[in-house]
Amino acid sequence: MTIFYAFNGDADGLCALQQIRLADPREAELVTGVKRDIKLLRRVQTVQGDEVTVLDVSLDQNRDDLARILDSGATVRYFDHHHAGALPRSARFEAHIEESADVCTSILVDRHLAGAFHAWAIVAAFGDNLRHLGMALAKAAGIDAETAATLEKLGIFLNYNAYGNAVSDLCFDPRDLAGQLLPFAEPLEFVRRSPAFERLGACYEEDMQRVRHLPPARHVPGAMMVVLPDEAWARRVIGVLANELTQAHPECAIAILSPNAHDCYTVSVRVPAQRHIAADEFCRGFETGGGRKLAGGINALPASDIDRFAASFEARFRAC
Description:
Helix 1 packs antiparallel against helix 4 and helix 6 (about 145-160) packs across helix 9. The N and C termini lie far apart (about 60 Å). The longest helix is centred in the middle third of the chain and has 17 residues, at about 195-210. This protein has helices at about 10-25, 65-70, 105-110, 120-125, 130-140, 145-160, 175-180, 185-195, 195-210, 230-250, 280-285, 305-315, and strands at about 5, 30, 50-55, 75-80, 95, 220, 225, 255-260, 265-270, 290, 295-300. It has two domains: about 5-200, Alpha-Beta Complex (inorganic pyrophosphatase (n-terminal core)), CATH 3.90.1640; about 220-315, Diaminopimelate Epimerase, Chain A, domain 1. It is α/β, with parallel strands linked by helices.
């Protein structure tokens, strides 16, 4: 029997995996990649009796491969908060899926494990740009403000590490970073004792210093669009920049565009909670688009579609 963990390489996927592995420390094959590499189940080949746990990738984007895995006789546990669509009907399928805007995958894992490794779920909430949730969970757990700030920083660093066109763009391969996290039941111990935390922080600060001087390409009331240069550092910051701009301009929908291969752009979209149009709904209007209510993206927007994207983005989110 082979155990597979297929997980998003961002903060939420890593922290969900960390909780699962701390609770059940068995040998397993890890399947992951950059944040946008979400069709992970195509890389999972199973036979009868294998076990697959999927963390923080859309079921809707993996539907055909999920059916193939279930047909092989493997069992599947699925933890996620993205758009799922219809769920498979199989006795070997166990779903922990909630699409609420105020939840992330690590929170679903935390509930499943009855809070056994709760601090890692708090780190994930911060990393997934659910700062209000992270602060509320920290307060309820009796965590002081200084410690909560450290957990928030770790969440941001882990999330930052997942963005790029390929693993070679990243500070750490998410598989390797998962291995660096594994020995630590408490995230504060990782911060204090692992050199990986210092390296993440140094990379993050260097990249963010570069991008903070970049002006928006378009900015109208209620909608802001930033186009990044074709550099590895710019690809790394796309997610954390979107989150930072969301906090600085809470009334604005934010779109960050970064060039990728084949004359296309990776797009990251953030939408204020009070808007009636969800980020995933808007992004699914473009091929390779998806996400969740407050945060969505497009994996490959052709350069020829940028003007159409910008016009649609401003038309949908411009404040009257």
